[in-house]
TrEMBL record:
One of its GO terms (molecular function) is ATP binding. It holds the Pfam family tRNA-synt_2. The keyword Nucleotide-binding applies. Transmembrane segments: none annotated. One of its GO terms (biological process) is lysyl-tRNA aminoacylation. Keywords: ATP-binding, Ligase, Nucleotide-binding. PROSITE patterns: AA_TRNA_LIGASE_II. Residues 26-345 form the Aminoacyl-transfer RNA synthetases class-II family profile domain. It comes from the Bacteria. GO terms for cellular component: cytosol. Signal peptide: none annotated. This is EF-P lysine aminoacylase GenX. It comes from Bradyrhizobium archetypum.
Length: 350
């Protein structure tokens, strides 16, 4: 029995009633977005959550579990941080336009904009440039706003019109405008010059001796760039520097930048998209470097999914994007935190 000095559980009648308007908005948004994908000829898929590798990014952490076979043999598996590996295997198998409302999991994440378990809306187009999924993202956000009837997103004193023409801004221009840094001058042969960026950023952020080029880049991005994005209207931040390419291909004609973009509203990152890399050897190199850095920082590394790397080599030129669905619902419903818009909060929380 809950004591009088303890808060009532989230499922109590009074507290659940407070959540109902946000959940009603979630249903409306889900229905509208799913209908749009259907109209566009996308196939909705449901890919496996248990994976050999949860993803190979330095700062993403996945819950680990173990499966036991009929013979008693044990094998380590991870809860996915994204459906990306499975989606690209489907592209290699011949699917051309797919989307998924995917449940994904990340350790070390909890806050107003983060949950350890959340819904990621992810979709892919084969044989299509990444400007197409960039345009898709703006349309999906507008459909969410239209589904709830909200005219303007608001978050922490910032507002954005989801129906206005979005701002298109390269990362290099954003660093120049908001931090006075010539970012591309610190990149050569696809690699970041740590000394050059440290010198350029030293007056803007605190740089420590063990900061890498990527650390300094992230500090400037978080402290000086992101707070200025998605103000009054959506911002599409694109042409990420090559050292931050992740699973994106580099831009033809300018190897300093990659075909990667992110979409912001009210300073909140909503989506992250790529013109997908199809060079398996390069993807392996990037993953190995990221896992070496994860080992150095956190004392752990995740295995490479060899089946995924084989699929990368077999898949057609494609583009894809991952959108934080709970964050979109939060903005489109007027909620203040993502945990207000999920049907049940993280296990163990009241």
């Amino acid at each position: 029995m809950v004591g009088s000095d303890q808060p009532s559980p989230w499922w109590s009648v009074g507290r659940y009633a407070d959540r109902k308007p946000f959940l009603t908005a979630r249903r409306a948004i889900t229905k509208a977005v799913r209908a749009w994908f259907d109209e566009q000829g996308f196939a909705e898929v449901e890919s496996a959550i248990l994976q050999v590798s949860p993803g190979n990014e330095t700062h993403l952490h996945a819950p680990r579990t173990e499966i036991i076979g009929n013979d008693g043999a044990r094998a380590t598996r991870y809860l996915r941080t994204s459906p990306e590996f499975a989606a690209k295997k489907l592209l290699a198998a011949g699917e051309a336009k797919i989307f998924e409302f995917a449940r994904v999991f990340r350790d070390r994440e909890r806050g107003d904009l983060h949950l350890p378990e959340f819904t990621m809306l992810e979709w892919y187009r084969a044989n299509t440039g990444y400007d197409a999924v960039m345009a898709d993202t703006i349309v999906v956000i507008a459909h969410a706003a239209r589904a709830t009837g909200i005219g303007r997103f608001s978050f922490r004193g910032r507002t954005a019109d989801p129906f206005a023409e979005p701002e298109l801004l390269t990362v290099a221009h954003a660093f120049e405008r908001f931090a006075g840094i010539d970012l591309l001058a610190t990149i050569a042969n696809g690699e970041g010059d740590r000394v050059a960026l440290a010198a350029a950023a030293n007056a803007r952020v605190r740089v420590t001796d063990d900061d890498t080029w990527s650390d300094i880049f992230s500090k400037v991005l978080v402290e000086h760039v992101e707070p200025n994005l998605g103000q009054g209207r959506l911002t599409v931040l694109f042409e990420y520097p090559a050292p931050e390419a992740a699973l994106a291909r580099t831009k033809a004609g300018d190897p300093r930048v990659a075909e990667r973009f992110e979409v912001y509203a009210c300073g909140v990152e909503l989506a992250n998209g790529f013109g997908e890399l199809t060079d398996a050897a390069e993807q392996r190199r990037r993953f190995a470097a990221a896992m070496d850095e994860k080992q150095r920082r956190y004392g752990e590394r995740y295995p490479l999914d060899e089946d995924f790397l084989a699929a990368v080599a077999a898949m057609p030129p494609s583009s894809g994007v991952a959108l934080g669905f709970d964050r979109l619902v939060m903005l489109a419903s007027g909620a203040l935190r993502v945990d207000q818009v999920v049907w049940t909060p993280p296990a163990g929380e009241t």
